[in-house]
Amino acid sequence: MNIEPEGNMSRPRPVMMIPLRRCGSHALRLRLNMSPQFYAPYPLHIVDLMPLVPLYGDLADDHAYFRMVVDVIGLQAASMVKWPDVVFDPVEIFEAIRHQPRSVHSIVWELLLRAGQRRGAGVVMDKSLDSVHYADELMTLHPDMLFINMVRDPRAQVASMNRAIIHDFDTLLNARTWVAAHRAADHVAARYPQRVLTIRYEDFLSHQQATLERVCHFLDIAFLPQMLDVVASREARQLSQLSALWSSNSHAPIAANIDKFKQQLSDDEIEVIETLAGDYMERYGYTRLSRGGAVISSELLETAIVRSNEGRERAWRELEPANFRDFVLRRCRADYLAQLRARLERQAAQPASMAGCTLDELDPMLFEVTD
């Protein structure tokens, strides 16, 4: 299906889920996706492309911006989970947004809104939670945007992050990331208070229907009883088979897992988390287990970075024999981003005198990739 805008159809309302992955966000997304009024495909996690954005140069240059359009569409194609029945034409996308404010976020949301509009959805949500750090730019592009701020006990979330290849492999580093994300969410809630709905993952576990009804009311969509039966979701079943990180998404949430972090984290790790995130724990009603007086030294941080890097290398080695599908799909996306970086850095290093050259005039040696 080629995604083309319908002139007589209004655009869906944009929604952003924030602030950090491993908060139970897939569980909520999959249930809401059972409504025909709602559409949230697997997220692009554009945060992984953000370090490359400066390498594109001035986006006022049509050539640079078109290249970015092509690359973002390529990232969508390289995603672990494909958007069903979706094909984007880079030329069509570029022409549709070339006279609008230019940014990578403009491109991403053009893809999302077109896909949602084609499905007849009134609400489209991006679950790229890390984009909380770009909320002000998103609000400039889409002033009617809403935000679902999903909070989870930082001890449980960090314990989950520690085992996820998408995060660091160290409690201190992940606790720092948790706090930074929630500070960004605080900024959003303070600046756009009427646009933010905050819910706790633990409340979703214990009061699933009430939480879903509250979210649906906020999004102005109808709550459907079938949202409670995630087992009937084909998307949930497919997702659970792709990665161990998503294995729990095909069945009802297990409330007993709320305190599972006590077996996954040491007392010292719990104290580190409670030291850094203690204020948020009090705000959201999570009971401390320590005094929260851990000393976070520069030496401790350096050790954490080394330990995390070693853990990441080990995780990649162990992933392939454990789940070759997960490994290949993640590696494909990582390789795509690495190839983009290599190409953009190579182009940035070219002499200015080459800017107007034709392909026939270029030295092929300039484009050889070396180890």
Kindly describe this structure.
The protein is an alpha/beta fold and 371 residues long. 49% of the residues lie in helices and 6% in strands. It is built from 14 helices and five strands. It has helices at residues 25-32, 62-77, 90-97, 104-118, 135-141, 154-161, 171-191, 201-206, 208-219, 234-242, 261-264, 267-284, 298-322, 324-348; strands spanning 13-18, 38-39, 123-126, 146-151, 196-200.
Number of strands: 5
In angstroms, what is the radius of gyration? 22 Å
Shape: globular
Which series of helices and strands comes N to C? EHEHHHEHEHHEHHHHHHH
Across the major sheet, the strand order is 2-3-1-4-5
Main beta sheet strand tally, sense and closure:
5 strands, parallel
Helix content: 40-55%
Count of DSSP helices? 14
Q: Percent of residues in beta strands?
A: 5-15%
Low-confidence stretches: 355-371
Structural class: alpha/beta
State the end-to-end CA separation: 39 Å
Rounded mean pLDDT is: 88
Which features does this protein show?
371 residues, alpha/beta, five-stranded parallel beta sheet, 14 helices
Brief rundown of the structure:
The chain has helices at 25-32, 62-77, 90-97, 104-118, 135-141, 154-161, 171-191, 201-206, 208-219, 234-242, 261-264, 267-284, 298-322, 324-348; strands at 13-18, 38-39, 123-126, 146-151, 196-200. With 371 residues, the protein is an alpha/beta fold. The chain has a five-stranded parallel β-sheet with strand order 2-3-1-4-5, sandwiched between helices.
